[in-house]
User: Fold these one by one.
Assistant:
Number 1:
Amino acid sequence: MFSKLLVANRGEIAVRIIRACQELGIRTVAVYSEADAHALHTLLADEAYPIGPPPPTESYLRGDRLVEVALATGCEAVHPGYGFLAENAAFAEAVEAAGLTFVGPPAEAIRLMGDKVAARALMARAGVPVVPGYDGEGEVEAFLEAARALGYPVLVKAAGGGGGRGMRVVASEADLPAALEAARREARSAFGNGRVYLEKFLERPRHVEFQVLADRHGHVVHLFERECSVQRRHQKIIEESPSPLLDEELRRRMGEAAVAAAHAVGYVNAGTVEFLVDAERRFYFLEMNTRLQVEHPVTELVVGVDLVKAQLAVAAGEPLPFAQEELSQRGHAIECRIYAEDPARGFLPATGRVARAVEPAGPWVRVDAGITTGDEITYYYDPLIAKLIVWGESRDDALRRMAWALDRYILLGVTTNIAFLREVVRHPAFRRGEVTTDFVARHFAGWQPPQEEVPDEVLIAAALADQLGGASPADDHHPANSTGAGDPFSPWAVADSFRPGGR
Amino acid sequence: MFSKLLVANRGEIAVRIIRACQELGIRTVAVYSEADAHALHTLLADEAYPIGPPPPTESYLRGDRLVEVALATGCEAVHPGYGFLAENAAFAEAVEAAGLTFVGPPAEAIRLMGDKVAARALMARAGVPVVPGYDGEGEVEAFLEAARALGYPVLVKAAGGGGGRGMRVVASEADLPAALEAARREARSAFGNGRVYLEKFLERPRHVEFQVLADRHGHVVHLFERECSVQRRHQKIIEESPSPLLDEELRRRMGEAAVAAAHAVGYVNAGTVEFLVDAERRFYFLEMNTRLQVEHPVTELVVGVDLVKAQLAVAAGEPLPFAQEELSQRGHAIECRIYAEDPARGFLPATGRVARAVEPAGPWVRVDAGITTGDEITYYYDPLIAKLIVWGESRDDALRRMAWALDRYILLGVTTNIAFLREVVRHPAFRRGEVTTDFVARHFAGWQPPQEEVPDEVLIAAALADQLGGASPADDHHPANSTGAGDPFSPWAVADSFRPGGR
Amino acid sequence: MELHYEVNGIRHAVRVEPSEDGYQVTVGDRTYVVRARQREEGVIDLTIGTRRLRAHVVAEGPRRLVALDATTYALERVRPGGRRRRLGAEHTGRLEAQMPGHVVAVLVEEGQEVEAGQTLVVLEAMKMELRVVAPVAGRVRALRCRPGDVVERGERLVELE
Amino acid sequence: MELHYEVNGIRHAVRVEPSEDGYQVTVGDRTYVVRARQREEGVIDLTIGTRRLRAHVVAEGPRRLVALDATTYALERVRPGGRRRRLGAEHTGRLEAQMPGHVVAVLVEEGQEVEAGQTLVVLEAMKMELRVVAPVAGRVRALRCRPGDVVERGERLVELE
């Protein structure tokens, strides 16, 4: 096993990786941008180094600097987490070229799966069903003809996109030429690759993905599925395992397809094969994520495997410690992503300082958090505050536990989606497992937080906190500078002139 | 299911029961002694009622008051937790006589298993092996003769005792008459029952217990074993599951014996059959605990069953939702009991105010705590602060995780056994699974906490906290009275005259 | 002592009087006997009648954020008799940044004619992409941003005429 | 500013000087550049060189309890030039209560002759039973406790002669 590893990421996933390394006795090196100088991951790692200004392009996406830091600090491996450089083939190559181990798949597998058009072709050859579409490089005429054959609506997608980015629905032939043109322009600007392709638009599909794990010795297993259909802005907010949709037979067939996909691309390490499942329970390869997923914990709790430790073991050359038939699902796990965002305003990201974070704690309740009391949420990075994950003996049990935990999650100072999630997990359609990717749009369009009368108890609490001087002063960072501002005993500023605690 | 339940207990187990009820939508009523007016369980329950002064005999042992409160508040059931009245047959009867459901076994099963002599006889009849001994009511001569046949050393035990209480080892015949006399006198005084019996003293046995669960419809299953050999003062401090000692065959035979024991006594609800296993891997019935155990979480994590919810379901008349063959063990779980006690002074209980409690958090780390920041630990009750439980894919994995978690458990203000536990889980014999009930005495006799030089970092932290005024004032309760003492903005008292934050 | 809070534009007066074993608190015409205990900074345990509650309270200037029973409330402490603070006007124009972020792409030039619905600027923040589109057909009078710019919410990005 | 702490009878002087971007702290003859940030009450994040640490610090009168890196330290803040506090004498007599608790049973009477090792009193606290035994043979001169009494650690229970 490695003795020292660089964590090329931030937030909750950096914290998750550092913790796994701590248990295994692997020393960790964190990197941080100027915006993250006080972030949790810098504190937990054994060492932490600044790598640049806040914009990712000047810090977390600077592969050259990351390799430099890894070499300078004597690291043997680099874990990319998810996002940032996790699916960047050139970075994986640079890491390996520097004599370090990249905790992830071979660069070639990343590159292949990163080109959505090439991936579709490869999967089709490997016998994995793909969504009917048109991947040609022809002129507009060829696209029009293909779209006619597929039937409208169709999706125009960017070959360099993924995860819902750079995707548009086209309802009729008249709109297609303009849509292609705009999509190409935007794809070029956003991904540096203007190629686009067509896919048949599936009506209200389910998003079901399979976790795979492969070692360097040719063994590939899958760790069953995750149902990720509850999405907003094409991004997942609730994930669960098992999927309420799958039966044993469909689970087996999809699992086999996922393993075949991994074999076809020479996959090593942890990866996820995403499928769409239509109303007739036909499944189609959507894309493969060549990295750890945000939602990996639901699999961990149901299958009983620590995926981060498994990644490290596989990267170190160890063979998988289990065969497919030794793996099984037990109970049910659900994850809710706690975002700094405003569900009542189109889920727009929110920023600010977390004045107080109190995570729920209890049996079978897990919180993977990267943000704690006192942290700033800036607009530079993903607004994910934490992942709340619960396990239960059954789906009902897990749902009750999730409702319990969401009710006890306290986050003051930033707008979050917690109130929204509370209603989703209590929604009858969700409770029945009737989730499709349009679930949020169907059931929560125009959602507004309940506007309740303020209960007397709240006014009493505020008044007594003022009376006792007991509210935490959120806007005082207690900086350890040499002025008096760091003295928490000076009353925090209030707009009017009364002194807290005075009578 | 019940709609409202009285929790006839305090501390972590009261909190555990309340949480399970919250998830199930059962309203809860807490009771508290004067010493517990601000305890966590009173805060979490829907209602809380005082039941008397601090001594248990005047509060938590006042079964009459508990039934009164349950009836007055419209409860349908009473959960006794462990300790206090949990194994009091008269209380179980009083609860049922009042028309309430006792969440536990029938009074008759409690009574039978509470008389250790009667229980031994019953088990022997049911074909469950018992430790060779003498249960007769004869004179000293008969005891002498029996002891001669057993061979010295022998144990003199109180029929009304249990859990290691009222037990003494006698090494030679000369000492037996005096020991019997003294044991009878003490047993009469301590348990109100002077009857004593003899057992062969097993050299360095293992303590292995089986969790059983029985419904009102005659179904009994076991949920496998817990290894509880690491003890001090005959009380467990570390428990794990599976036992490193058992193989499949011994596990199967012991499990069957546990189920037979439960059947023999007409058992219903959760219970534990305790066995001793000698060096030749022979097992003997020791006693049956007719209640939930402190260490139930290790079973929960390995078997995937919520035992408190199962207790409630069974008490409500539901049949067990699983058959024996559907239950299995996955991975490995370990529990460390975090006590307010001084391992360097004979594990004597410690008291005081918890100035700060920060529990470790991370994947597969669970803390069942009844004490949080600001709570007082008094000498009236068990000094258990919390239970730290971890799960891992293997025993090694769980051990690493436990070491990780113990290193991150912060408890300031009271003496605890955390530093001691840290060394136990890292001890080579423990890591090899070589634990017998004399483990602590053999390996940790005369243990003293490491006396390290204070690192400069600690002095720097103290100095900067004083400089910034940033240490929490532990001795200030912030009482909400009408004097100025509740103002946290007044500097906390220091012995000398400098002002924190001043220069 | 009387304290005043404003929530959603409504003002609430809370009178707090020390009493034998805690406080007598009056909200509107309702009076409560309350015991309070500050467990740690920002955490207050209340006993109101037979109910026990834990509230988390944070002060941000005159704002009070209170978390109680699964809900978060934002109160504003106001002076007795004082006036409400005016809320900043909401920016709703479609040519302004709807969120803070950075400009990924500017797809038009000054002087260019655009159609209604045409994408003018692509913003990105925290993995989210937002397109700023023309609400009506028109001509781009001025561009107020360039690719790579960091913009605040409400900032004007494009002027149409 | 110089602060003084005593740990295990040894005195440490810590000099803290504000500097450009934090503090210069001198402990003995070692000087550190330190940045500190109080995250919440009692929690201080330190950067000492390239090391980052989180310390939990609690003050109990002049005592400072510090948790750092899996270990807890008890320091006593002392006045510059001041004298050490005298520690209370340890009670070690075997006829005194070794822990606070209550008296379960008194097994002897006044005037009774007892043997060395004989149990005189049974104490119980927090599920633990402790026997107070005679260290030598002798006669019970006086009993200072009765069943049900609550006793403090160090309290004398029995007098032998």
Number 2:
Amino acid sequence: MTRNLEVSLYIFVLASFIGYQVITRVPGLLHTPLMSLTNALSAISLVGSLILAGAREGSMTTMLGSVAVFASMTNVVSGFLITDRMLKMFRRREAPKKPGVTPQ
Amino acid sequence: MTRNLEVSLYIFVLASFIGYQVITRVPGLLHTPLMSLTNALSAISLVGSLILAGAREGSMTTMLGSVAVFASMTNVVSGFLITDRMLKMFRRREAPKKPGVTPQ
Amino acid sequence: MIAAISGRDAAITLIYLLAAACFILALKWLSHPTTARRGVLAGEIGMGAALVATLFNARIVEFQWIAIALVLGSALGVPLGLLVPMTAVPQRTALSHAFGALAAGLVGTAEFYLNKPDIEKTTMVALGLEVVLGFLTFTGSLMAAGKLQGIVRDRPWVYKGQNLVNLAILGSALVMVGLLVADPSRTVFFPIIILGSLVFGVMLVIRIGGADMPTVISLLNSYAGLSAAMMGFVLNNKLLIIAGALDGSSGLLLSIIMCRAMNRSFANVLFGGFGAEEARAGEVEQRPVRSVGPEETAMILDASRLVIVVPGYGMAAAQAQHKVRELSDLLMRRGIQVKFAIHPVAGRMPGHMNVLLAEANVPYDQLFDLDAVNPEFPLAEVVLVVGANDVVNPAARTDTASPIYGMPILDVDKAQSVIVVKRSMRSGFAGIDNELFYLEKTQMLFGDAKSILGEVVDELSRMPAKEGVSR
Amino acid sequence: MIAAISGRDAAITLIYLLAAACFILALKWLSHPTTARRGVLAGEIGMGAALVATLFNARIVEFQWIAIALVLGSALGVPLGLLVPMTAVPQRTALSHAFGALAAGLVGTAEFYLNKPDIEKTTMVALGLEVVLGFLTFTGSLMAAGKLQGIVRDRPWVYKGQNLVNLAILGSALVMVGLLVADPSRTVFFPIIILGSLVFGVMLVIRIGGADMPTVISLLNSYAGLSAAMMGFVLNNKLLIIAGALDGSSGLLLSIIMCRAMNRSFANVLFGGFGAEEARAGEVEQRPVRSVGPEETAMILDASRLVIVVPGYGMAAAQAQHKVRELSDLLMRRGIQVKFAIHPVAGRMPGHMNVLLAEANVPYDQLFDLDAVNPEFPLAEVVLVVGANDVVNPAARTDTASPIYGMPILDVDKAQSVIVVKRSMRSGFAGIDNELFYLEKTQMLFGDAKSILGEVVDELSRMPAKEGVSR
Ligand SMILES: NC(=O)c1ccc[n+]([C@@H]2O[C@H](COP(=O)([O-])OP(=O)(O)OC[C@H]3O[C@@H](n4cnc5c(N)ncnc54)[C@H](OP(=O)(O)O)[C@@H]3O)[C@@H](O)[C@H]2O)c1
Ligand SMILES: NC(=O)c1ccc[n+]([C@@H]2O[C@H](COP(=O)([O-])OP(=O)(O)OC[C@H]3O[C@@H](n4cnc5c(N)ncnc54)[C@H](OP(=O)(O)O)[C@@H]3O)[C@@H](O)[C@H]2O)c1
């Protein structure tokens, strides 16, 4: 066992607790946006792949890294965009009083 | 800045988040027990003082350490005891139907 | 162990910490519609900061590949984010899990070949998990997306001893990880591990019916998160661990919520071949039902004070949400109170109905969940069931033999009268008959939800406005 | 940086992690009375495990002092835990903050003298904060305890330019910490820092009235937690950091809750000298009020259907909670509904009333908080105010000049009739007159809460039972 592992374990346990706490507070109303948002967030694996793609440590590493960057970046962009698109649609009572209002 | 500091900062931030999350969920009903419990928990500084008290690194260290151990241990014992004592008293409707029941 | 780090690394570290905080806040703010978009913003800020900071990492020496990958990724991301219709959200989600997991798997692979043969044992464990989870989630999610999109055939592919075969595949992959932990120089195993995981992903999902996909997708979601967290263990990057853990727990919780609401176990979802039943029980023996036309429906609705609308998968399938909105607006302007009853697993993914109705611009304070609305049904003169079936099936309360027994349902049968919009007497996802349709108080409005409700709307709008009506 | 650690240290580390998890669960389970005691158990398990594990630390070579300290600590802890009456809980809490903070301060001191002169800058910052926070919390909490116990005179000690002096003391202590960070060999500063902190603690609290102590105590609580966390930074012990952070946030949140409920700012609490006003406005000019006797009170109560009891500090001061319980039981057995309205800052600490009533065995589902009960007052024939004053003072709604203006109160004045139990017309903690007492519908039942309510109970029990009463 290494210090790094020790640290990682602590971080993981604490973060999982937080995840449990905050996510149980998300109402069913927003479960679909929740899915797409957490999705975008976990695309942070970007930081791992960026280093590989730029580290000039053999063409294979560069290639794998670049593909990974591509995949993650796709998730980042699409994830945030679609989440925001969904959330924009959620409205309070006011709006639909005048019907025919198209979702902005 | 050292790796240790980096780690400590992460732990501190995450733990504070958790603290905020769980404690905002404690109902006013239990705020007094909450005080005494967190109190007992923070007496975990015991682990720090134990090492000093036992490390045979000069009589001053030993002395300071021992006093610290004494102080923390007092909090541990009294904190848990009184919290449990309070919580034992909280009852659902059933109990007081037959009046004169003395708190166990 | 005072290991000092350079000013630049310190800065990067702190930015990562800030990013982690942003991510947590993002999810925290998602707890209410009014703050949700702020949450997205927080997430974007964190992501942007982390990305930029990483580019300053000393190990990065050449940027052209990074630039290309980022551009291409964005180029694909924008359409995926902006053009995908709301009804295709489940597929899109599955697809992005596939991408995320692929990234994790590839990074793991690269790390292995960079650091072999001297990889510290615990690191190797994490790396192995990262790769296995990554690649099985990759193919699994692709399959799921394919099934939902109808590219892969939806019908579950089941044969005897299937579970054994699958477990064997997964098992051997894990065993080889173990061997690599013992001696990382046995590099030959690595490709086999990858292959095994890829195959297992396919096998896992191929046996599951399309309707169960949402649960599986959430499960895969938590795998993807876990795999990202493992990547964090390998690179000891705390931000990765945190984000991974958040993603993982969200996936896990959602799948648990779904299973609960369906009153089923993970095992049942993964190995039950539930979808198969769906296929089998497709047709049900005919029994007399009262059917009704659009015009009469319009009159019944117009005659009542409180109407509760219960949307289900059928509304999604028919894209009828806009018609439903029009209808409810019409009724409300005619002084009739309209409420929407949303079952947690109505539709095909968590929150499915909420998103569709929001898209159709129905205010969310008009939507009520199970517990809130169930006491109201007895007060409703009419309940309009739009393409919902299982979630309003009384068998869940009464018939212990039924596959959905114990699943909490909307007590539509307690209402004063019920109108059910569906195309036929065919059963829903659970593939079982629904007593509700045969009740005295129930009338069937047969037809495609969108078109038939369109007719109801026309009828209503043709009716003369009532006097002295105000909301 | 692969820094491998021995098997023993690894074990200790994992046990610490487990302890941390236990602590978090402990607070989580405190979110409901039915799980709360499990929470205490979790906390004890975590603490026990951590303690034992630490004894295996390689640095520990001699155990006699540890043994002695542990024994003495327990010897003092048991009576403090078991014999302290519920009404003295505030003092006890203050005292234990003092102990905890002292421990942190001493450890910090020892660490400094062990590692000087080569102490890494950031470590020195943490160490400095630990020591300053530790020692100022030590004396501050002792003062607070003393005031609440009546050992130190309660009346705030205020003089001109006091804040300046205090800030100067604190400031200089912090400056010297800065100097030590720059060059840890300047050890001469260290004792001065300690002294400054000790003095500042006294100065901070000496100017605050006893009634404000609870807020101050919570604030000191968060300091103590922070100081423990800093100790964790110094020893880089993650368990310490976590526990400290939990303690710190709880203290901070509680003090915020109190300030909100009193509609006051920290600054006002710490520098406002609120207690002083209390002293000044002790006596209020006499105006006519309707007073009532125990017998009539008994009859009025017996004649009503819903009685709401509003307990306040007076109930605690009089130890009247058991009499109140008896009264409510009598009434309920006579078919009268009894509810308790608990204001968040009724009494002298958060949850004060809840604990006292629980001690008197009142079921907690009979207690209702502000938001839950306020709509009910108009329905109550009688509201019985037992030693509450500020928390039922309508001035908080109406009189912008009042010091409690804006503080959310229990709308007792909206009830059909009110009976107020107190000894005199003297004002409460805020030291202001209370319009409620002069209303048409209000009657004063003068006397010590315990004895006078005792008489009411006797009257009631002497009354003939009503016919056909059932709960
Ligand atoms: N929401 C989730 O997260 C989730 C996840 C996994 C599984 N599930 C399962 O999915 C089911 C959801 O229940 P549900 O009541 O919403 O849907 P359902 O039980 O699947 O029933 C949908 C009904 O809609 C009708 N329909 C289909 N297309 C239509 C159209 N174009 N126009 C009108 N009607 C149409 C179908 O009848 P016709 O064919 O006769 O028209 C069908 O009976 C539950 O069993 C749940 O367990 C949900
Ligand atoms: N709970 C907290 O956490 C907290 C913290 C800080 C400050 N505070 C402050 O404390 C106050 C609490 O309000 P409160 O209404 O509960 O209490 P209060 O406003 O302090 O009034 C208590 C009343 O009880 C009466 N009383 C005292 N001893 C009595 C006895 N033996 N028998 C009968 N009556 C007796 C007193 O009148 P007589 O002298 O005429 O009997 C006094 O008017 C608020 O102003 C709050 O801001 C609370």
